[in-house]
Amino acid sequence: MPSQFYYLSILEKNLRYKKYVIDKKLCYFKPHATKIEKSFSEEVIFGLGLKKKMIQPKFFYDIRGSDLFDKICALSEYYLARTEIEILNNIREELTMILDSEYRLVELGSGSATKTRIILDVLDKIQSKIEYFPIDISDILAESSEILLDSYSNLHITGIIDTYEDGLQFIEEYDDKKNLILFLGSSLGNFAETDTMHFLKQINKTMKRSDLFLIGLDLVKDKKILDKAYDDSQGITSQFNLNVLQRINDGLGGNFDLNKFEHRAFYNQELQRIEMYLKSKSEQIVHISKTNTDVKFNKNELIHTEYSHKYTIPQIKQMMNQCNFKINNMWFDSNQYYCVLLASKF
Ligand SMILES: C[S@@+](CC[C@H](N)C(=O)[O-])C[C@H]1O[C@@H](n2cnc3c(N)ncnc32)[C@H](O)[C@@H]1O
Prior knowledge:
Helices cover 41% and strands 27% of the residues.
């Protein structure tokens, strides 16, 4: 018989989320519109009010941002996506041996769920019913879930359109099934250093002993390769970066003139990270009407929009160890540009 906690947790979920049932194989949960709008406006205004201005990278991903990210993944300079796909393709057989019929797939930052298909193919071989719980802040989750259902007749999807942290909490409260948690695209590298450890610990705390964690991480490499990957010759990364200002214009009534800002991205060797900024080309004042805020920019002033940390193999081992993970397998591509690792809870 379900416990009192079970009923309380359902009640709390109803307060936090609106449930959308598309059909018997697809439903998703999304926080109420007021929560989404409130956190977007509060976090943007807070970040633009700081001495060193910043906008959180999670705000890149409206539908247009997610589409631009997919275009970035197809660029020849952006080795990350094709390298991760190469590794995942190479380990299909091994994963078939490691996984079993009980694992449910939970994916953090599923995006257009392209790489997910490799894991779904593996599960398809060993499961008669595949359960998939994508978590993504972007509405692209709803679109990509419908597309996936066309390819897998035995797939059942419960999506959570929310932040990684709240999505994980949702899963933790949902039930006790065995999870394979997937975190691809080296998205962990987007966290600031202190937040990285905090988030890895949250994932670890969410996991049961039988759960597995499959994560892709980008490795330290030549600065020239890294600089090109985040400042491509076709200017798609620049459009992706500038789109966050358009999103503020659309969602918060901002009057950012995108021509008055430019994309800056470079690899900081000492701190082992790509740093991405939007640079104000002139002195200017931007008005954000929904919050009645004026934001003043000096010429050449930067808005920080993203980090993408790169790791050495010893650093990865140490980080995982400190967050109570046991590394079961580490796989690399032939250039050692990228690493996919499988871990469980100590
Ligand atoms: C770098 S993309 C990776 C997409 C996909 N996993 C891949 O490897 O190609 C990051 C994805 O995570 C989502 N995302 C970014 N920050 C997030 C956050 N804080 N909470 C939930 N989703 C987030 C974005 O919407 C996007 O789809």
